[in-house]
Write a structure and sequence with these properties.
A mainly beta (about 110), B mainly alpha (about 100), C alpha/beta (about 375), D alpha+beta (about 170), A: about 110 residues, mainly beta, five-stranded mixed beta sheet, three-stranded mixed beta sheet, 1 helix, C: 9 helices, 19 strands, globular
C-alpha cells in the first residue's frame, strides 16, 4: 500500500495530475509541485531527514508546521530549511542534513 | 492534565531535541541551584537551539516544578526574543538597510 | 505598509475577528505563516459540534471556506506564508518575512494575536525517532497534504484530538493498533471514543508508552499498564509492531508574541499553560493589543470564533468605527454564546480558567 | 455514572437504556425509530434542528441530552447524518418477521453495494453476525456521511452498530 491518499471518503479523489522530479541524496523521487518537501519524502518512505550534531541521531517530521525545526534539510545547497513547510519545486536537490549542515554555493 | 506529561524515570532521555540536552543534565542543573527556566536554559542550552525551546520548554518547566516544588504559576517562561521564526541574517540586514534609507 | 488592524493567525479566531472588524469599515490585514489560511480548520474534516449558530454539523474544512469567502468579500488583506518574526513599539508594528524571502515592516493601529496553540510533547525513550510525531502533525500530513505518516499507528492520548485523529487515520486507510491513555478514564468525548471502538480500535486506559524502538525509524513500541500511582505494573509490558506513534497529550497556547510585546502573561493549567491576560473585551494588559482563540486558553473552534468576534468588535470600537452602545450590544451577544458553550460539564475547566484569567487581568 | 463509557468507550447496556435518546425496547421493536446514543452533555443540537417531525428535543440549554419521542419519530434517518458524533442509528424492528433493518452513518471507502453480505459489528467492533445491505443513501444534504441500511436477525438489533466489508 502506498502512503499517498488517492481517494478519501471526505476529501474525495486527489485531482493533482503531473508530478515533477526531485533529487534526494542523489536518488530521484516523484513529487507534486507545491507540496511540502517532507510530504513528498514521506510518500517515498524517506523518514530520516537529518542526523543530529552531537549524537548523530536520526530525526524526522515532528510538528509538521514549521515550529519544531526537526525536519531541517539541505535544500539546493542551503542548510536548515524546514522541509515540512517548504514547497517542492521542480528539480530541487535535497540532502539529509548532518549536524548543523554545510553551505554549498550554487554554481553561478 | 498534568499527569499526562509524565517524564520517564528509568533511562536518561533527550528533552531538548535541538541541542540534545538530556533529562539528567537538566535535573543536575536544577540540583546545583538553577531555579528559573531562564537559568536552566543558560546553563544547559536546553531551549537555545533552532526551535528556541518551543518543544522542550514545557518538559523543562515540569521538571523544574517537580524538583523545586515551585508551582508553575510562580515560574515565568524564558524571555522571548525575536526572531520568533528562523530567518536568514542577510534578510535582517536588508531590513536594517531599508530603515536606514527611510531615515 | 500601513493597516488599522493587524491580525496574526488566520484560524477561526482571526478570521471571525477580521470579519467583524471589516464589516464596520476597519482596514484589516491578516498574517499567517502557513501557505493556506484557516489555521487548523482545514485539517478538521469532521462535522463540528455546537448550535446552528456555530455552524454545527458543518465540517471544519467547509467552515474555513465560508469564513474566507466572507473575508474576501470584505476586502480583508491576507498574507500567507508570512511569518511575524518580530513585534515592535508596543504592538504598533510587526516585522514580516514573506514566503519569497523578502521582509517588510507592517505598521498598525491595533493588533490582534490569534496565533493559536502548539501540541504538547511527551518524552519517552525513543521519542526522537522518525515516526514519532504529533497527532496534529499527522492530521496536517494526511488531511492537508494527503500523505499518511505510516501504516500501523499507536495513538498516545485519548483526548478529543487523539480519538478524532484515530478515526481519521482509518478513513485515510491506515491501521490504528490502539489508543492508550495513562489516566484510568478516556479524556475525550464518549461519542468520539465509541466511534473508534466500533471500528475495532482498542482503547487502553491506565496504559503508558515505555519506549519506542527501531534503528533509524520506529519499528515498534512497548506499552505497559500503570497502577494508581502511575507507575508501570511489572510484567504488564506489551510489544507492538508499528511504524508510527502519534502523540496527543494536549495543547499549549503559543503566547510568545504577546510575551515579547510586553503583555502580562500568567500560567493557568486549565487553559493549557502560559497565556496572556485579557479583559472581557479580549484586550491584553497593553492597550491596543488583543488576543482571541487558543492563544489565550485552549478550547474549541466555536469558542475561538466567538472570542474572535468580540476582539474584532472591540478593536473596531476603539478605532472609532462603532458606537459604544452598538459595540456593547454585539459583544454581549457573543458573550452569551460563550457562556452557553462553556456551560456543559466538559467545559468546566476552561470556564474556570477563563474566570481566573480575567480576574488576574483586573488585579494586575 | 457512565463508568463503562468513560473507561472503555462503549456504553453498557444499562447506561444505554437510561439515555433519554434511546426509546424503550418495546418501542424499538415497533420501530422504525431513531436510537440516539448520546450520553454526555456536549453543547450541540443539530439533531433537534434537522428533525422534520419535532421528535427530538434538546431545548434552550444546548448542553441538554436529546430526548426522543418515539411516537413522533418516523425513522426517516435525517438525524443520522446530521449528528456530528455519529451517535444516531435508526432501528426498524418490524422490517420482516425475523429481521430488523438498521441504518448507520458510514464515512469510509469503498461503500458497500446493495445486496452485499457484510460482517455486522457490535459497539466493540466484534463481529456478531452477517448483514445484508439493503439501501445506501448518500445525498448531497448528508455531506459525505452515507446512510447505510442493512438487515440482521431481529434479536441483534440493539447490538449491531457498524459493518465491515468482507
Amino acid at each position: 500500500m502506498g502512503l499517498r491518499i488517492k481517494n478519501h471518503p471526505i476529501l474525495g479523489r486527489d485531482l493533482r495530475k503531473d508530478m515533477v522530479s526531485i533529487e534526494v541524496d542523489g536518488k530521484v523521487i516523484p513529487a507534486y509541485e507545491g507540496e511540502p518537501i517532507a510530504a513528498a519524502l514521506t510518500a517515498s518512505r524517506i523518514k530520516v531527514l537529518r542526523k543530529t550534531k552531537k549524537q548523530g541521531e536520526p530525526r524526522g517530521i515532528f510538528c509538521a508546521r514549521g515550529i519544531c525545526t526537526d525536519c531541517v534539510m539541505t535544500v539546493n545547497g542551503t542548510p536548515n530549511i524546514r522541509t515540512c513547510i517548504t514547497p517542492v519545486e521542480k528539480n530541487m536537490k535535497i540532502e539529509t542534513q548532518e549536524g548543523l549542515g554545510k553551505w554549498r554555493e550554487e554554481p553561478k | 492534565m498534568e499527569r499526562r506529561t509524565q517524564i520517564n524515570e528509568e533511562k536518561d532521555i533527550i528533552l531538548c531535541r535541538c541541542e540534545e540536552v538530556t533529562q539528567k543534565t537538566i535535573e543536575k542543573a536544577i540540583e546545583k541551584g538553577d531555579d528559573t527556566l531562564d537559568n536552566v536554559k543558560r546553563s544547559t542550552r536546553a531551549g537555545m537551539g533552532l526551535c528556541q525551546g518551543r518543544t522542550c520548554q514545557r518538559l523543562v518547566a515540569k521538571i523544574l516544578k517537580d524538583k523545586t516544588g515551585k508551582p508553575l504559576e510562580e515560574l515565568t517562561p524564558p524571555t522571548s526574543r525575536p526572531p520568533f521564526r528562523p530567518i536568514k541574517l542577510d534578510l535582517l540586514a536588508q531590513e536594517g538597510n531599508k530603515s536606514v534609507e527611510r531615515k | 505598509m500601513e493597516t488599522e488592524l493587524a491580525i496574526v493567525g488566520s484560524g477561526p479566531a482571526g478570521l471571525a475577528a477580521a470579519i467583524e472588524a471589516a464589516k464596520t469599515g476597519v482596514k484589516v490585514t491578516i498574517i499567517d505563516e502557513n501557505p493556506r489560511p484557516g489555521g487548523q480548520l482545514f485539517k478538521q474534516i469532521h462535522k463540528f459540534f455546537g448550535s446552528e449558530k456555530h455552524k454545527a454539523g458543518i465540517r471544519g474544512i467547509d467552515i474555513g471556506h465560508e469564513l474566507l469567502e466572507q473575508c474576501e468579500k470584505l476586502n480583508v488583506q491576507i498574507f500567507l506564508s508570512t511569518e511575524a518574526w518580530a513585534i515592535f513599539d508596543n504592538g504598533k508594528a510587526l516585522g514580516l518575512k514573506h514566503g519569497n524571502n523578502t521582509t517588510e515592516k507592517l505598521n498598525t493601529r491595533k493588533l490582534l494575536l490569534a496565533s493559536g496553540a502548539i501540541e504538547n510533547p511527551l518524552a519517552f525513550p525513543g521519542w526522537t525517532l522518525p515516526g514519532v510525531l504529533g497527532a496534529g502533525a499527522t492530521q496536517t500530513l494526511m488531511n492537508l497534504h494527503r500523505v499518511l505518516p505510516g501504516q500501523r499507528v499507536l495513538m498516545v492520548g485519548t483526548g478529543n484530538v487523539g480519538l478524532i485523529v484515530s478515526y481519521q487515520l482509518l478513513q485515510a486507510g491506515a491501521d490504528v493498533v490502539a489508543a492508550i491513555d495513562i489516566l484510568p478514564q478516556i479524556g475525550g468525548w464518549g461519542v468520539h471514543a465509541s466511534k473508534i471502538r466500533r471500528l475495532g480500535i482498542p482503547i487502553l486506559t491506565s496504559h503508558t508508552i515505555k519506549e519506542a524502538f527501531g534503528n533509524n525509524e520506529v519499528k515498534g513500541a512497548v506499552i505497559a499498564r500503570v497502577g494508581q500511582d502511575n507507575k508501570v505494573i511489572p510484567e504488564s509490558e506489551r510489544k507492538l509492531e508499528i511504524d508510527t506513534i502519534c502523540i496527543a497529550v494536549g495543547l499549549s497556547p503559543m503566547a510568545e508574541l504577546a510575551q515579547s510585546a510586553g503583555c502580562q502573561i500568567t500560567h493557568i493549567a486549565e487553559l493549557g499553560g502560559w497565556t496572556p491576560m485579557h479583559n472581557e473585551r479580549m484586550e491584553t494588559t497593553i492597550n491596543g493589543i488583543y488576543v482571541a482563540g487558543d492563544v489565550c486558553g485552549v478550547e474549541e473552534a466555536s469558542t475561538a470564533m466567538e472570542e474572535g468576534k468580540i476582539s474584532g468588535i472591540a478593536a473596531a470600537e476603539s478605532l472609532g468605527y462603532l458606537q459604544r452602545g452598538k459595540a456593547n450590544g454585539l459583544m454581549k451577544e457573543s458573550q452569551e454564546s460563550l457562556n452557553a458553550l462553556r456551560a456543559g460539564p466538559f467545559a468546566t475547566q476552561s470556564k474556570l480558567g477563563k474566570e481566573k484569567l480575567i480576574e488576574r487581568f483586573h488585579k494586575c | 455514572m457512565l463508568n463503562m463509557l468513560r473507561s472503555s468507550g462503549v456504553l453498557s447496556e444499562q447506561e444505554l437504556m437510561e439515555l433519554p435518546g434511546v426509546p424503550p425496547m418495546e418501542l424499538v421493536e415497533k420501530g422504525p425509530v431513531a436510537v440516539i446514543e448520546c450520553a454526555e452533555m456536549i453543547p450541540c443540537n443539530p439533531c433537534e434542528a434537522c428533525c422534520p417531525t419535532g421528535a427530538i428535543k434538546i431545548g434552550d440549554d444546548i448542553n441538554n441530552l436529546p430526548i426522543i419521542d418515539a411516537v413522533k419519530c418516523t425513522g426517516c434517518g435525517l438525524c443520522i447524518a446530521a449528528c456530528p458524533g455519529l451517535a444516531i442509528f435508526v432501528v426498524n424492528g418490524t422490517h420482516t418477521k425475523s429481521e430488523a433493518l438498521i441504518s448507520i452513518p458510514y464515512e469510509f471507502l469503498p461503500l458497500p453495494n446493495v445486496g452485499d453480505q457484510v460482517e455486522a459489528l457490535d459497539r466493540q467492533g466484534k463481529k456478531v453476525c452477517m448483514a445484508k445491505i439493503v439501501q445506501i443513501r448518500n445525498s448531497k444534504k448528508f455531506d459525505k456521511t452515507a446512510i447505510v441500511s442493512f438487515t440482521i436477525p431481529k434479536e441483534r438489533c440493539m447490538e449491531v452498530r457498524h459493518i465491515r466489508l468482507s
